[in-house]
Structure formats: structure tokens, C-alpha cells
Amino acid sequence: MTKSFGTLPNGQEATLYTITCGGLTAEITDYGATLVRLWVPDKAGHLADVVLGYDDVNGYRQGKCFFGTIVGRNANRVAGSSFMIGDRKVQLTPNENGNNLHSGPDFYHTRLWTVEFHVDNVLVLRLDSPDGDQGFPGNASIRVTYELDPMGGLHISYDAECDQDTVFNLTNHSYFNLAGHQNQKAAMEQLLTIPSGVFCPDDAQNIPTGEERDVEGTPFDFRKPKAIGRDIDADYEPLILQGGYDHNFEVYTNPCATLSAPDGSRNMMVYTDLPGIQFYSGNFIIDEHGKDGVVYGKRSGVALETQYYPNALNNPAWDQPTHPRGEPYHSETVYWFY
Predict the structure, then answer these.
(1) What is the 3-state secondary structure (H, E, C) of the chain?
(2) End-to-end CA distance of the chain
(3) 229-281 pLDDT per residue, tens
(4) Other C-beta atoms within 10 Å of 45: how many?
(5) How do the domains of the chain map onto residue ranges?
(6) In the prediction, which pLDDT does 185 show?
């Protein structure tokens, strides 16, 4: 099923596509290849839309929180907005305190993608990114596939290739509230499990310091299920600097995270083949006029972004998102609901 999602200032029409399978229904727009709605049943069969978003394309044009968007070529932050690929210095545009965030300001989520394939449970979108786009080298072709499976999984696959050595570090920036996107108070009451034993502290500009700190005895210990809001305002420097959680955790097992509604009626496991998962508690959502008349406030949803470590491009000790020319790139993340 498709329907209009609004008109852009240049007269182009954005479209909303629906896919359904396994009790799930997802609505995705070709504007930014963005996940707009995700209907998930609870254990009694009652459906709720569990992702934050906007009603139409104008909301996404004006919004500042990356609700449901595809982020690339490089997700998260690059210190000093520059890095090296071999002997070549790559310069990005500073868009946050002299650093680069999510490859902006010419974000992928502000562009119309081409829909290549659409059936009941699958949607494939393509974006062609020319040499020099956002500062990255090489002509790249990028495909994102949303697929729902009969067992309750939402698969997001990323496939790409480029004619030069470049960077591929793509993620989806959905904010989840398994009690339903409108139930803002419940967002911090959700139970989160992250089995990782280490996280990456950031400096005051949200750039990882390079340390991989043991979670033992810290507010970052989510190895057992814990309400997200329980320790979020603790007197602990990494939380104080970022106003809450906005940190990378090591992925060393799958599922790499499990999120549950406060009453346990909806649950979600996250699987990935990438080395890191960024947990963001929505600390800077401020008066965002969203879907169904809801005005989202601080910490009204949480993002679990699978990706390479932030600023890995400037830390050779970490797995690198650089990718050789001509070789196909593939990565997949699964959000599985039960």
C-alpha cells in the first residue's frame, strides 16, 4: 500500500509505503528512507505504534531529532570533522562544536530515495551518492532494505559499493517507546538489558575519549534488566556531561540489547553484525510536534543505534568503517519483537 506523504518545496512528492508480516506493520517514507510508524502487538494482541515520528514530510523537513532516519555515510561523530583514508585527508563540514555529526549538514534523511522494490513485506530503497558528497570520496550506490519476517522481526539491511576507498557506517535512528509512542512517561520506565561489559566515556563534546570502561559498579551496568531512568541522573561524570545516556557499548554477543515495556507486554531484542551500539536516552528532545498531536519532550523515547564506534575513523585501535573500492558492503540489524 502507498499514499502521499506530502509535497517538498521543489514540488516533488514524498510517498509513504506500508509493509506487513508476522503481526507487524511498518510505514516507511522515501523521504530519507525513514521509518515513520511501527505497529507491534502486545501479548494480548493489542497494537501500538512504538516509534517516535511525524505525520508528514514537513515534520521530517523541520525536525531536529533524526526520528526513524537512515544516517550515512558515517553515523555519529568525527572529531575535528576530518580523518585520513590512506594518505588522503578527508574533510567534512563541521556541524556540531567543530566536529561532524551524522555526516551533516547535507543529511541523507533530507533527500528523496528511489524505491526499487516493494511487496507485502519488503521495501528496498536506493540512494546514489556522488564523489565528494558530504566530503566523502567516491561515487557510491547505497541500498537500504526493510523486511518483516513471520517471526516478528524487522530486518534493516544496508548494501553499498563505491568506486573509491570510502566510509560505510550506516544506521537507523529510530526512537523506541514500547508502551506506545504517545506514552511519554513510560519511556524511562522501559527495562533495558545490554550484556556488554564495557562502554566508551565521552568528553564534553560527545567524542569518545578512547577509554573502554568496565561497567561494573557504574550507572552503565545494564547486564541485568534495569529501568532506564533508575540511574540516569546519578552524580557520575559521563552522565553529567551528556545530560543522560548517549554512549557506545561494545557488541560482543547477540542479542546486543533487549528492551521491554514497563509491564513486560512488549519486548524487543536487537541483533547486529557491527561492533558497537549507541544507546541514546533522548536527552535533547524538546517540544517536538510529532504524530497524532503528540508533543514529544525530553527522554520520551530511546535510540539503540548499531554502528562502528563513534570517531573510530580517528582511533586506529578500533574496528574501522573504511571500505575498499569495488567490494560490496553489507550489514544487517534486526529488531525482533515478542
Answers:
(1) CEEEEEECCCCCEEEEEEEEECCEEEEEECECCEEEEEEEECCCCCEEECECCCCCHHHHHHCCCCCCCEECCECCEEHHHEEEECCEEEECCCCECCEEECCCCCCHHHCECEEEEEECCEEEEEEEECCCHHHCCCCEEEEEEEEECCCCEEEEEEEEEECCCEECECEECCEECCCCCCCHHHHHHCEEECCCCEEECECCCCCECCCCEECCCCCCCCCCCEECCCCCCCCCHHHHHHCCCEEEEECCCCCCEEEECCCCCCEEEEEECCCEEEEECCCCCCCEECHHHCEECCCCCEEEEEECCCCHHHCCCCCCCEECCCCCEEEEEEEEEC
(2) 25
(3) 999 999 999 999 999 999 999 999 999 999 999 999 999 999 999 999 999 99
(4) 7
(5) 2-337
(6) 97
Output the nine-digit C-alpha cell for 323.
Answer: 571500505
Q: What distances in angstroms separate CA 180 from CA 154, 215, 232, 273, 332, one per listed residue? A: 17, 30, 21, 28, 25
195, 271 contact by CB (below 8 A): no
The catalytic residue among 109, 212, 305, 323 is 305
* Stated length of the chain: 338
Average of pLDDT values for 35-63? 98
* Whether 127 contacts 162, CB under 8 Å: no
Q: Residue 292: left (phi > 0), alpha (psi -120 to 50), or beta? A: left
Options 109, 173, 247, 323, the catalytic residue: 173
173 counts as catalytic: yes
Residue 189: active-site member: no
CATH placement of domain 2-337: 2.70.98.10
pLDDT tens for 273-321 read 999 999 999 999 999 999 999 999 999 999 999 999 999 999 999 999 9
CA 194 to chain CA centroid, nearest Å:
16
Q: Which of 192, 259, 266, 258 shows the shortest CA–CA distance to 41?
A: 266
